[in-house]
# Entry
Amino acid sequence: MSSFKERKELRKLCQNLAKGNWQKLAEILHKRNEELIEFTAEELCKRIYPIEAEIIEEEDPADNYFFVWMPAFGQCCMTGTGDTLDEALKELIKRKKGLFMYLLERGHRIPDPTEKP
# Structure
């Protein structure tokens, strides 16, 4: 059973379609799609993905840093870096929702947490 708000939105969509107001219909659908992508990204952030870490050693040991990634996405998508392991993990967590949204907007498949590329 749909909520009152959903029925009202559906009625609005049908009215715009009947009037031939395609631009308004496109705007409503676009907004709805953005909301759905954001909600899905938030839900995906709740999944527990394995994380791997590596210390990247530079010529000057003071320039060494930590690199973390989620193997299910390879080493070039869901990543974080920092002077400490904690900083790298915080960066990865901070970027996760935006990266999920980016992948969803472009129609990429989101792997299961147990998958490896």
Observations:
- The chain has a mean pLDDT of 84.
- The chain has two domains: 4-45, 52-105.
- The longest strand covers residues 52-56.
